[in-house]
Design a protein that fits this description.
heterodimer; A: 290 residues; mainly alpha; two-stranded antiparallel ribbon; 2 strands; B: mainly alpha; MetI-like fold
Chain lengths: 290, 284
């Protein structure tokens, strides 16, 4: 095909997006590293260079370790559920049964609703005199301090994330299931295979890339969780539900310790970028092929 | 044969049982919120056993919270921010996607990978410098409302996801379309605007809908930059209900439900885009 555009045309087309990405992605990205070497604790307006001091402080800070552990606990609790339950539901929904659209709409509803409203709704379920504690006590058990007990707070918040994510991942699985050749299931039926063997031998191997994709994207979003914690617990009680993004927020915007917060942001960057690299190069190659 | 049909019925029964159970779990938190929002002061909202059906039914909590909270204002602010974000994403993504799909130029590979790299950078990790830059550019609500809106929109004005989506769409158009247009005397911008853009409308729709949902629910960024209540978007305003009405759960519940109605309507109108599975992976 002949070249119908001028030499500068491609750059002109790229310019507007380029400016936005430069100002709001690339500069902040490098600035995060720079800020992490600055000390803001004496004067917020004229920071001094402090080398690796923020990182040394970070790795001597017990709260940081607590926050890291919480973040990985979050991941360990949420990711397996979000990888498995939506798959199971997608398999159930991927049949010729009545009411599929209604089921899909209802299960997808939590994805659409603002996380703030979802968190408020759960806060109300978790209330000390709330409906969940009614259920618990009606089984003859002690009331649970869902959001006020250090043993429960993190799990209670994780449940909200899971509840809000299930519909989203179910739809991703559903798209993958549609691509499994029907003949394979027919062969299974002739062999008389039951539900479990059918899906273990046909479905799972076929959609393994999607399972891996769901695992990494749910892991990345678990690393970035914020609103649930902000609305429900503010990281409490005693830091028991504080995760890394919430701690960055607290250090940066409440304690104004920008250097320390940036050092933590660098840690977050490294972890998320590692997950993303796996994701892009293993599972989403096609979408981003040049 | 008979055994087979019984088996089929039984498996259908279990399928429906599980799906009904999960559907109920999905909507129960909202049902309980709605129930609480409709209970009058004469009814104990902490009653054991709990009543799903309000015994002292009233709309008073809705009118009460409506009088005290400027929902229309929050809604308008959210519309401005989401609308602006969608518009900019459509324009910037399609402009950038076109040369990446159709043109050869120096630095194409580097540009491509630079955009790809932004996918790996979570906003949460760079939000502090983004905030400092936004202040430096005077894009905050303390300057004026317009600057405040621009500051809310700009960090999300374009995304790698959008650029790649549009690039993919342009790749799918036969090259003959452009050639014919060039022969007819179009220049490159006319080719883009008059010939190619109308052909990628379905992708533009997908991008618009998912950008809208993402922007509408955004909480972290507005809660960092906003200082004036008059500028609150719906999620920030709803979170603020907790402080305003401390333990008045009737009002908090009514306000939360009110704030959710617009997006539910939007979802039901556009549901096929969300649940068909064709656009998997488009949000977040």
């Amino acid at each position: 095909m002949f070249k119908y555009y001028g030499k500068h045309a491609p750059y002109l087309f790229l310019l507007p997006a380029g400016i936005v990405l430069l100002v709001f992605f690339f500069i902040p990205f490098f600035q995060t590293f720079i800020l992490s070497f600055l000390d803001y604790s004496n004067n917020i307006y004229s920071p001094v260079v402090c080398g690796l001091q923020n990182y040394i402080n970070l790795f001597h800070n017990p709260v940081f370790y607590k926050v890291l552990i919480n973040t990985f606990l979050y991941l360990i609790l949420a990711v397996p559920v979000l990888a498995v339950v939506p798959l199971f539901l997608a398999i159930l929904i991927n049949q010729k049964i009545r009411g599929i659209t209604l089921y899909k709409i209802l299960i997808y509803l939590p994805v659409i609703v603002s996380i703030v409203v979802a968190a408020i709704a759960f806060k109300w379920l978790y209330a000390d005199q709330g409906i969940l504690n009614y259920l618990v006590t009606s089984f003859g058990l002690e009331k649970i301090g869902w959001l006020t007990d250090t043993k429960w707070a993190l799990l209670s918040v994780v449940i909200v994330t899971i509840w809000k994510g299930i519909g989203y991942y179910m739809i991703i699985y559903l798209a993958a299931l549609m691509s499994v050749p029907k003949e394979l299931y027919e062969a299974c039926d002739i062999d008389g295979a039951n539900f479990l063997t059918k899906h273990l031998t046909v479905t799972i191997p076929h959609i393994m890339p999607t399972i891996a994709l769901v695992t990494t994207i749910s892991a990345i979003s678990a690393m970035k969780v914020f609103a649930e914690i902000y609305v429900m617990t503010k990281g409490g009680p005693l830091n028991s539900s504080k995760t890394i993004v919430y701690y960055i927020y607290e250090k940066a915007f409440e304690n104004l310790d920008l250097g320390f917060a940036s050092a933590m942001a660098v840690v977050l960057l490294v972890i998320v970028m590692a997950f993303s690299l796996v994701n892009i190069f293993c599972f989403e190659k096609n979408r981003y092929q040049i | 044969m008979k055994l087979d049909s019984i088996k089929k019925k039984l498996s259908g029964f279990w399928t429906h049982t599980v799906l009904i159970f999960v559907s109920l779990l999905s909507i129960f938190p909202f049902i309980w919120l709605i129930s609480t929002s409709l209970k009058g002061n004469a009814e104990n909202i902490f009653a054991y056993p709990p009543n799903i059906i309000p015994q002292d039914f009233t709309w008073a909590n809705y009118s009460g919270v409506w009088d005290k909270v400027d929902f229309i204002g929050y809604f308008v602010n959210s519309m401005i921010v989401a609308g602006g974000t969608v518009l900019l994403n459509l324009i910037l993504s399609s402009l950038a996607g076109y040369p990446l799909a159709r043109m050869e130029f120096r630095g194409k590979k580097i540009t491509f990978f630079a955009i790809l790299a932004t996918i790996m950078i979570p906003f949460q990790a760079i939000m502090l410098p983004v905030y400092l830059i936004t202040i430096k550019l005077h894009l905050v609500d303390s300057v004026n409302n317009f600057a405040g809106f621009v500051g809310l929109i700009m960090p999300f004005a374009v995304s790698a996801f959008g650029i790649f989506l549009m690039r993919q769409a342009f790749l799918g158009i036969p090259k003959e379309m452009e050639e014919a247009a060039i022969i007819d005397g179009c220049n490159v911008f006319q080719v883009f605007w008059k010939v190619l853009l109308p052909m990628v409308k379905p992708s533009l729709a997908v991008l618009a809908i998912f950008t809208f949902i993402g922007s509408w629910g955004e909480f972290l960024w507005p809660s960092i930059v906003l200082t004036k209540e008059a500028m609150y978007t719906l999620p920030v305003g709803v979170n603020n209900l907790q402080g305003m009405f401390s333990s008045n759960w009737r009002f908090i519940a009514a306000g939360s439900i009110l704030s959710t109605i617009p997006i539910i309507i939007f979802f039901l109108a556009m549901q096929r885009y969300f649940i068909s599975g064709e656009n998997e992976g488009a949000v977040k």
